[in-house]
Amino acid sequence: MWQMLTVLMECRDQESELAQTLSVLVSGAVEGLVSDVIILDHGSQDGSSRVADAAGCRFHVDWDIKDIVASARGEWLLLIEAGARPQAGWIDAVMEYIALGRSPARFAPSRTYRKALFKRLVRSVPPLENGLLLPKGQAIALARSGMDLAGLARGLKGLKLSSEIVPAWVVAAR
């Protein structure tokens, strides 16, 4: 049985970052993997809502994570940061994983875009830096009112997908 994917992102004044991530996700929609994209806003004053609308995303300014997760169309969720970009092969890697997997997974960190060795050694990796793919049922069980996506992802270990992701901080650093 084919299972589809709902992508969830949060934003605040990240019009450009949203556009970059959404442009990569289009191929997933064309391939029939991505069923819907939900953008959770934190008071954006830029064109984030227009970018989301133009891409056919659901854009929420007043939201509770429990309601959002329950409303997701896909049986799997991909939590990702605005500005992050899954790399070549991501569709096949995700399709294969959700066909066989039952537990969370994360993209492999980009080998091209990495922090300096010392910074990699001393910093903790934010919970969504490499995205998080998880079954909707598990997300429903974990979701609590007042929680954000990072809170939902925090502490979840994930197997590593074969595809890499360029993290959102790369866009922010430019």
Automatic annotation (TrEMBL):
<protein>
    <recommendedName>
        <fullName>Glycosyl transferase family 2</fullName>
    </recommendedName>
</protein>
<dbReference type="InterPro" id="IPR029044">
    <property type="entry name" value="Nucleotide-diphossugar_trans"/>
</dbReference>
